[in-house]
Amino acid sequence: MSGYRLALTRAPSGVGFTLIELLVVIAIMAILAALLLPALSQAKLKARGVQCMDNHRQLCLAWRMYSDDNQDRLLYASEDPTNAASFSRAWITGTLDFNPAKPENWDPSLTIKRSPMWIYCGNSLGIWKCPGDTSFVQVYGQQKPRVRSMSMNLYLGGWGGNPYYTIGSMWHDYKMYLKQTELAVPGPSHIFVFLDMRQDSIDMGNFAVDMVGWPDRPAGYGFYDLPGSYHGRAGGFSFADGHAEIHPWRDDRTMPQLIPEGFVSDWLASPNNPDVAWLQEHATRPRQ
What we know:
The protein has three helices and nine strands. It has helices spanning 2-9, 19-68, 274-281, and strands spanning 136-139, 142-145, 150-153, 192-196, 206-207, 222-223, 234-239, 244-248, 268-269. The termini are far apart.
């Protein structure tokens, strides 16, 4: 009996881990996690990029369907505030900011659902935003996502079809496309329609590419608006032929530090910036 009782109380040999063994296992797990996290982050970025391109393609399709049903006419990139008749022909109206007293910032029924494109969007609000845009408006302690992150190339219709809205600018020197057929120069695959915009740059519905310096005077390059970079160092675009792409940025000046719940300058000099050259090449062409 004594031998039996002893067998019940004696701990089996070789069972369990020592403290050192546990620390080694934890260290190995930490190393494996450190190796896997970058790969997981890249996979997440890639998935977000795929979703963003799909949103761009669907939004661009809605834009094209409007033209098909309206004698080839293009929607305006923005309304002309001096011309009330232009509001019904703008792809989107209103100005985004972070003012909680402006429900247009966060209520799509006041903006997106009034767009001439809405009937072609399959009731999808998601296609008006890049999934990487997490900007919001603080309304009575509640974070309300802003309605969109995409803007339209200014040279597609301009401000209500008016190339002279900004007095003293260079707008009148460049094509303001008003019909699909006009995009034959330089070709619909070369002109972007929509792009992701930074949350501290987006306001009206348009994205204005500064054409100063095009094509061979890079010392004059600059930005009126800043593109988004929700995909690492890259931003989403859709083009007039319907294709979409994530375009990488090469210059750090294209991606200055974000101003949370604020706005960057309306004009930023950026001489010799290759990203400005790319935007110019895909925005418009000189008037003939």
